[in-house]
Amino acid sequence: MTTETTSSREPVGRFLGWLGLRHSRSGARPSGENAPDPGGSRQARGDLVAAIGRFLIDNDLDISPANLVIAHGAFSGSNPQLARQIAARAQSREGVTQLWIDEVTGGEADQDGRADLDRLMTRLETNLDAFQTRSKAAHQMTRDYGSELEEHLTDLEQLQKTGQIVSSLADLAKAMLERTRKAEDEMRRSEDEAKSLRRSLKRAKRDAEVDYLTGLPNRRAFEALLARHHREARETPIALSVAFCDIDNFKAINDTHGHDAGDRVLKVIADTLAQISDDHCHVARHGGEEFVMLFRGLTPAEAAQRLDDARERLASRRLINRKTDTPFGVITFSGGVADVFGYADPRAALKAADEALYRAKEAGRNRIEVA
């Protein structure tokens, strides 16, 4: 990041003031600031807002919803990989620009769009439930009405002494019965279409939580899984560990063999990690060349051992680019493991695991570190 100056601090002050987090010149505090702050949560939120404000203003970035989401992910600890990318870019000659932000984040910043999609799909499912309930009721009423009408029609046709009025009523009843049967057929088709739409919605929701390249769950699906397991493990005390894994020297693989070959290496790593996955071990692609894992019922040391076994199996393989018959050389990954219950919340544990991963990289790569 660029060095903070007086001119850059003033816009930050206005930004914090707009959010009601800046002290007035007279030293008075905003309303409620004198209240107790257990755990320093208010201070932490203020620091986060200040960091986001400095980042956007110092780098001349728009204060847009997308940039706020990106900055929050980087500075809150929810996206440590992005935080490292931003830190490295800030130290480079090019610096952080809006164009670079758009390129490096791609579609990951569109959280609001995905949330809107979730809400739309939920609303569609609710409407489908209501439609099917009403359709079934109408279908049953139509069927009952048709049966009753058919009985009356039979009675009318069996009358020996029918006048013109009765004959006309019988003809009218026949027409109404035919229309009733057509309506019943249309309702049945509508119910079939509703069932088909429901299947499509389920498929869309499933696809939205799967990484298209590796077939693993994506970060969004993993975060939901982690929240659920954290809640369950807290109620029935059980060990819970998280891990980050990152392919070593992946940029060199892409530069030497091309991105298609890099994608194939990603699949190999995904398959290697998936082999140790079961009902108590879950793996997902976090983004780029980084994977995230959840170990239920395993301490950090036990989880690290299982991950280290997978690392050794991969390092012993000699992979070849089949399209060019060029050896890839030794492909390895590094990892960091943390105890979820050793930190204030799962997000803090993920950050600790990422920091352990970074230590593994600094210590020479191809190793697993425990936070």
Textual characterization of the structure:
With 371 residues, the protein is α+β, with helices and mostly antiparallel strands. The chain has three domains: 6-108, no CATH class; 112-207; 219-370, Alpha-Beta Plaits. The protein has twelve helices and seven strands. The strands form two sheets. The chain has a five-stranded mixed sheet with strand order 2-3-1-6-7, sandwiched between helices. A two-stranded antiparallel sheet has the order 4-5. Helix 1 crosses helix 2 (41-58). The two termini are 27 Å apart.
Topology:
Blueprint: H1 6-18, H2 41-58, H3 65-76, H4 80-91, H5 98-105, H6 111-158, H7 164-207, H8 219-235, E1 240-247, H9 250-257, H10 259-274, E2 281-287, E3 290-296, H11 300-315, E4 319-321, E5 326-329, E6 333-339, H12 346-362, E7 368-370
Parallel strand pairs: 6-7
Antiparallel strand pairs: 1-3, 1-6, 2-3, 4-5
